[in-house]
């Protein structure tokens, strides 16, 4: 049996762009993706702290060091530029694996940049 458990998250990043006319997904600064152990195309849950919306999409690598957090396609209707969101990924594993697995949480600064020594 497999269970779905928390794998990683980017906690409280600011939406920098929303592009309704793009194919879909969320574009994330590659530095943040690496720190949170996210890969391009990975399914993520987006939690919008400003309006309570929760939805799923997949990741696209954004320019490294840019701080970009851009919701694309239909997801752009669920956010406003400046909203604070949490990006969460989950993984399937056995209960035995889950007991010892430790997820990763990244806490960027107010400009969506990694903080040295934190995150």
Dominant shape: globular
CATH T-level fold name: Barwin-like endoglucanases
Distance between the termini: 32 Å
Main sheet overview: 8 strands, mixed
Fraction in helix:
10-25%
What class would the helix/strand composition place it in? mainly beta
CATH architecture: Beta Barrel
| Percentage beta strand | 35-45%
Poorly predicted parts: none
Quick one: how many beta strands? 8
Order of helices and strands: EEEHEEEEHE
Mean pLDDT: 95
CATH class membership: Mainly Beta
Instruction: Enumerate how many helices there are, as a single number.
Output: 2
Describe this structure in words.
This protein has 119 residues and is mainly beta. The protein has a single domain, classed as Barwin-like endoglucanases (Beta Barrel), CATH 2.40.40. It is built from 2 helices and 8 strands; from the N terminus they run βββαββββαβ. The chain has helices at 30-35, 95-100, and strands at residues 3-14, 17-19, 25-29, 43-48, 54-62, 69-72, 84-93, 104-106. An 8-stranded mixed sheet has the order 2-6-3-5-4-7-1-8. Strand 4 and strand 5 (54-62) form a beta hairpin. The N and C termini lie far apart (32 Å).
């Amino acid at each position: 049996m497999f269970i779905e458990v928390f794998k990683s998250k980017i906690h409280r990043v600011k939406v920098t762009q929303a592009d309704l006319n793009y194919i879909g997904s969320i574009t994330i600064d590659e530095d943040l993706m690496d720190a949170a152990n996210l890969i391009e195309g990975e399914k993520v849950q987006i939690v919008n702290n400003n309006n309570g919306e929760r939805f799923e999409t997949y990741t696209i690598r954004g320019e490294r060091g840019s701080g970009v957090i851009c919701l694309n396609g239909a997801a752009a209707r669920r956010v406003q530029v400046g909203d604070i969101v949490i990006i969460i990924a989950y993984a399937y594993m056995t209960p035995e694996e889950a007991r010892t697995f430790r997820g990763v949480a990244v806490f960027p600064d107010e400009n969506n940049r990694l903080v040295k020594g934190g995150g």
